[in-house]
Amino acid sequence: MKVIISSFFFLFTSLLLHAQNGHQLWLRDKKALPVHVICKQNSPTLTIARQELHDSWQGAPGATISLIIKKDRAVKVDGFKLNENVIQANTDKGILYGVYELLRNQQTGGKPKGGVDNPSYQFRILDHWDNPDGSIERGYAGNSIFWRKQDPFTVTDEDKKLWQEYARANASIGINGSVLNNVNASPMILTPDYLNRAKVIASLLRPYGVKIYLSVNFASPVSLGGFKTADPLDPAVMAWWKNKVKEIYSIIPDFGGFLVKASSEGQPGPQNYGRTHADGANMLADALNPFGGLVMWRAFVYSANNEDRAKQAYDEFMPLDGKFRDNVIIQVKNGPIDFQAREPFSPLFGAMKKTSVMPEFQVTQEYLGHAVYVVFLSTMWEECLQSDTYQQGKGSIVARCTDGSIFPQKNTAIAGVSNIGLDTNWCGNHFAQANWYAFGRLAWNDTLKSGQIADEWIKLTFYGDSSQKSGEADYTGDWTKNFLVPVKQMMIDSREAAVNFMTPLGLHHIMSANGHYGPGPWWAPKGIRPDWTPPYYHQASTNGIGFDRTKKGSDAISQYHEPLSSEFNNVATCPEKFLLWFHHLPWDYKMKDGRTLWDDLCYRYDTGVNQVREFQKIWDKAGPFVDSTRFMEVQRKLREQEINAVLWKDACLLYFQQFSRMPIPYDIERPVNNLDDIIKNDTRRGDGRSH
Ligand code: BDP
Question: Is residue 6 part of a domain?
Fold first, then answer.
C-alpha cells in the first residue's frame, strides 16, 4: 500500500511540476507581479533591464523602481548601487547587473547587501575551446553554439536566438566577455568570413554587456599572410598584426582583444624565433593598444625536458616579471600542472608582482568526469582563491593577489573554460549548469562561499515552476528540508568525492589517456613523452608512491613563499591532501590517523565510491520535488558516475597493489573488476589528442 501511495505521489507531483528541459537554466519563466520602472535614459541595455524587471518582478506588487545613470566615484566599472527601490550606476551595464542582483535576491530570499556592489574582477570571461568546424576541444555538451561545419557563414534566426539567450545568461551572473574560439587556434578565425560571423555574434552579445575576444595562432602571418616568419621583432610581422587588428576593429569596434597560447604543446610562438614570451605578447599588445584591446597570454607552458613539469611555467615566466606591456595579462591555470581534481595553487600567483596576472579555471569537466559526474566545482575554485600565497605577508590569498587588492595591476581579469554546447540543457548535465553559474558569481565576488552559490542556484533552478503562484517564494517548508538542504550538501561534498575515488592524497594525472575519463595509471607506451604518461606523476614502485618535489627531489616547493615552502617540504607538516603531490613515500608510511599509507589510500578510494552511492540516495529522494525529465536525467548520470567510481577504485587499487604487495583492508568491499579487463576495455573516450 505504502509503495502504491508513494509512487502515486511521485506521479502526481511530477505532473504538477511542469516539464523542464533545462534550457532556461537558472532563469526560468516566472509569473511576474506588476512593477513601475522609471528610467530617464535610453539604450538597448536599459531596455533589457526594464524588460527583465517587468518579466520577473517578485517584490511588492505595484512598486516603483528607479534606474539612474549617474557618475559616482565609489562605483567602479560595471558596479552599481542598490538602495531601496533605486539602482544607480555609472553605465547602463551597471544598471543591468543591479537589476539581476535585485531579482536574484527576490527569488532566493537573499538580502541585497545594499550600497555599492563592485565586481572583484574587471574582465570576467568565458573561454570557449570551440573550433571553426563546430567541434569543441574538451566539450561534452554537443557542438559549438558559435561555429559550424555545414554552411558555416549563414546566420539563422535560431543562431541569433541562442546567442541572445547565451548573452542573457552570462549577464545575469556578471560575465562580460567571451573568447569565441579554441586556444589551439586555427589561423582561419582571422579571415573575413569568420570575422563577419563574429561581428554578428558581437552584435547580439553587446546589449548584454558581453564583449567578444578571439584566440589567435601566433603563426598567422605565415599561414595567412604568406610570410616566411612570424618573428615578433620582424617589422613586417609587426605591421601585419597592426593591419589585422585595424581590420578587426573596423568590423567589431568594441572588440575585446586576443587570447594566446604560444610556444606551448606544439603551438607556434616567439620561441620558434629565439624570442621570449614578453617579446611575443608585447608585439600583439602594441597592435591592440590604440584600440584599447587586451592580450591574455597563457602561462600554460612545459616542454619535454628533464625539469619537473610543475615547475616550468614559473621558471619561464618569473624572469619576465615587469617586462610586459600594461595591456597584457598573464593567464595562469589554478594549479601548476593541468586542471586536475586537486592541485595546490600555481606558485605564479602573488609571485609575479609587476605584471597583471589572471586565474584560469576549467568549467568544462575534462578531468572530472565530462558531462557524466555531478561535481560542483565552486569548492575547488574557492579553495584556490582562498589559498594563502604569503607573498606579501599572511592573508595574501590568490584572490587578493589577482583582483587588484594587493598589487596595483592595471587590468584585473579571470577566465573560465566554458562547458557550453548545443545540448538542450547547454552543459550536458543539469548539475554542470551550476558550474557555469558559480564561475560567474565568483568572478563577480571572489569572497562568495560555495554554500551560498549552491543555495542560490538550487533555488533558481528547481524551486516551484511556472505554474507556481507569483510572489515571494516560501523557503520555510518541506522543499527546503527535503530537497534544498540535502541536494546542497551533495553539491558541496561532490568534488571531494571525486578526489577520493580518482586521485586522493595528492595523486594527479593518472587518468586514461586522450579522453581523460576513467582511470589509466598504467598507460605508458614506448616512445611517448614521459610527462604525458601517468607513471611520471605517480612514480609508483615497490619502494612507494608519489612525486618527490621536496628539496631532495625536484625542489618545486622552493617556488612557494615561506612558510609554505617549508611546510610543503616537511612530510610532517605537508597537508595530507597534497602528500603525494610533494612527497614520495613508502607504502607503510604512517599517516596521521595511524594507518599505513596503503591502507589509507584504499579507504579513501572506498569512501569516494560510497559518497557517490549516497548522492544517488539523496537524488532518488528528490523525486517529488523535481520535474520527471530532469529527475530521470540526473538519476542516469549518477548511475554512470557510480560505475565509473567503482572502476577508478578497482583499477587504482589493483594496479598499485602490484607495487605495495599489501592486502586491501578486509572491511572494504572487494574489487569487482579485473585489472587486465579494465586495461583491455579502456575505450579511451578520446578526442584524438595524443595525450
Ligand atoms: C589541457 C587539454 C588540452 C588543452 C590544454 C590547454 O587537455 O586539450 O589544449 O589543456 O589548456 O588540459 O591549452
Answer: no
Average pLDDT, stretch 172-194? 98
- Give the domain-ending residue among 92, 117, 142: 117
Q: Is the pLDDT reported for residue 11 higher than 70?
A: no
pLDDT on residue 471: 58
Dist CA 506 CA 281 (whole Å): 34
pLDDT at 690: 43
Indicate whether 528 pLDDT > 70.
yes
The confidence band for 95, taking pLDDT boundaries of 50, 70 and 90, is very high
Compute the distance from residue 144 Cα to the ligand 1 centre, in Å: 17
Check whether residue 246 and residue 295 sit in a common domain: yes
Annotated catalytic residue, options 338, 388, 599, 627: 338
**Contact present, 689 and 139 (Cβ < 8 Å):** no
Residue 344 in domain: yes
Structural domains counted in the chain = 3
Residue 7 to residue 212: CA distance in whole angstroms: 49
For residue 362, which atom of ligand 1 is closest to its CA? 12
Domain boundary among 414, 449, 484: 449
Pocket mutation for ligand 1, best pick of 363, 366, 367 (most atoms within 8 Å of C-beta):
366
| 561 in any annotated domain | no
State the residue range of the domain holding 616: 495-547+584-681
Residue 421 belongs to domain with CATH number = 3.20.20.80
pLDDT classification of 18: cutoffs 50, 70, 90: low
How many CA atoms, within 13 angstroms, populate the side-chain half-sphere of residue 422? 13
Residues 81 and 193 in one domain: no
Which CATH number do you get for residue 672? 3.90.1330.10
pLDDT-based confidence at residue 470 (cuts at 50, 70, 90): low
Are 27 and 155 in a shared domain?
no
- Each as own residue / partner, the long-range contacts of residues 275-280 (CB below 8 Å, 24 or more positions apart, any chain) are 275/231, 275/232, 275/233, 276/320, 276/323, 277/301, 277/316, 277/317, 277/320, 278/320, 278/323, 278/324, 279/232, 279/233, 280/218, 280/232
Please give the Cα distance from 190 to 180 (Å, whole number).
12
pLDDT for 3: 47
Q: List phi, psi (to 5°) of 179.
A: -90, 120
Alpha-carbon torsion, ordered 394, 399, 401, 405, to 10 deg: -90
Examine residue 110 and state whether it is found in any structural domain, yes or no: yes
Q: Choosing from 159, 265, 465, 640, which is the catalytic residue?
A: 265
Residue whose CA is at the smallest distance from ligand 1 atom 1: 338
Residue 358: φ, ψ to 5°? -125, 140
From 366, 403, 496, 606, active-site residue: 366
Tens of pLDDT, residue by residue over 216-270, are: 999 999 999 999 999 999 999 999 999 999 999 999 999 999 999 999 999 999 9
Same domain (yes/no): 529, 638 = yes
Ligand 1 pocket mutation pick from 183, 297, 361, 514 by most atoms within 8 angstroms of CB: 183
366 classed as catalytic: yes
Average pLDDT, integer, range 301-309 = 89
Q: Catalytic: 265?
A: yes
Q: Give the model confidence (pLDDT) of 282-302 as tens digits.
A: 999 999 999 999 999 999 998
pLDDT at 648 over 50: yes
